[in-house]
Amino acid sequence: MAELERFEDMEVWQRARKLCNNIYPLTLKGSFEREFKLRDQINGSSGSVMDNIAEGFERDGRIEFRQFLSIAKGSVGEARSQLYRAIDRNHITSDEFLDLKLQAEEISKQLKGFISYLNASEYKGAKFKEASKPPNLKSEI
Question: For 18-32, what is each residue's pLDDT tens digit?
Answer without folding.
Answer: 999 999 999 999 999
